[in-house]
Amino acid sequence: MSEALVEGVKRALRAVKDPATGLDVLENGMVETVNVRDGLVQFALAVPRERARELEPLRQACEKAAAAVPGVLSVTVVMTAHREAPAAPKATSTRPPPGQGQMLLPEVGRIVAVASGKGGVGKSTTAVNLAVALAAQGLRVGLLDADIYGPSLPQMLGTQEKPRAVGQRIVPISRWGLKAMSIGFLVEQETAMIWRGPMVMGALEQMMAQVEWGALDVMVVDMPPGTGDAQLTMSQRVPLAGAVIVSTPQDVALIDARRGVRMFEKVNVPVLGLIENMSYFCCPACGHRSDIFGHGGARAEAARLGVEFLGELPLKLAIREMADAGTPIVLAAPESEEAGRYRAIAARLWEKLGAPAAAAGPRIVME
């Protein structure tokens, strides 16, 4: 069934012509691997970087053509800027080497990556609460979910709202004083993103270049775990002001956190510090403290690596419950000890970024 559907999609795409050459997108070599699973179709269009905005109607035409094929339930097409433009006669290509082109997000003052060496350490919860804490200082804050395979922002921000399109630009979701964007806002919640590296990089570039972010003081980027394509794309395509590494205290997490620190050092991105999440467990019934994953490992690792230890956050039921409910604890329980810790870390990050003190902005109040 999948093979027949792939062939049906390819037949439909032969009706979509590249206006510059008159050739269909298959003849022109623009279509990268067509993936089909349970009626969900995903593929990328490889285009010259300088034609990406011009070819947005072509991308939409490809989505429309594929969606009309019987048996197709959903279509996602992204553009990847990894294709050389045809050389003009008697001229050489002026396309810059990868990573040396025009940097994205020029209107964002400072971009901070929140990263981890492995999954499951609470990185996304940390990123969301830090972003909201920065917004509560009166800053203009963006929150970008760079985890294409496992986007979590829709759940943690408590909305499945679809972004609006204005012309060829996408308007980010506004929530809790933030401007936010995630691939999770663009696809159905249970859609599996079965994409290779170039498609991931293309999707990330689109969420940066084609989203109407506007002027921001700071953008927090919730990175996927590990040291792969997304990390390289971010380090090459945006001027990262620094990275924050989140880890639990246990040795296996610290080994991966160490790799994360070394990766950012190799691409010349300053590591602003380490955060120890799930530092200890507090029983909600009696308040007894247990060091389930050990304690102090991230602090010791930060000292060993010569980076700042930004703070520790407990493993508390309220943090998890409020994250699952789509209301960050910084907003839902602003007087709690853990909310205060998030605010203190956010304030220290803003200080480390060399930023002037923010003017007092409107307080975000829970209705």
The number of helical segments is 11
Shape: elongated
Which value, in Å, is the CA radius of gyration?
A: 22 Å
CATH topology of the largest domain: Rossmann fold
SSE topology string: HEEHEEHEHEEEEHEHEHEEEHEHHH
Number of domains: 2
**Which architecture of the largest domain would the CATH scheme give at its second level?**
3-Layer(aba) Sandwich
| Main β sheet profile | 8 strands, mixed
Structural category is alpha/beta
Level-1 CATH class name of the largest domain: Alpha Beta
Question: How much helicity do the residues have?
Answer: 25-40%
Q: Provide the β-strand percentage band.
A: 15-25%
Q: What is the spatial order of strands in the main beta sheet?
A: 8-9-5-10-4-11-12-15
Spell out the CATH superfamily of the largest domain.
P-loop containing nucleotide triphosphate hydrolases
Please provide the count of β strands.
15
Give the overall average pLDDT. 81
Q: Could you give the distance between the termini?
A: 50 Å
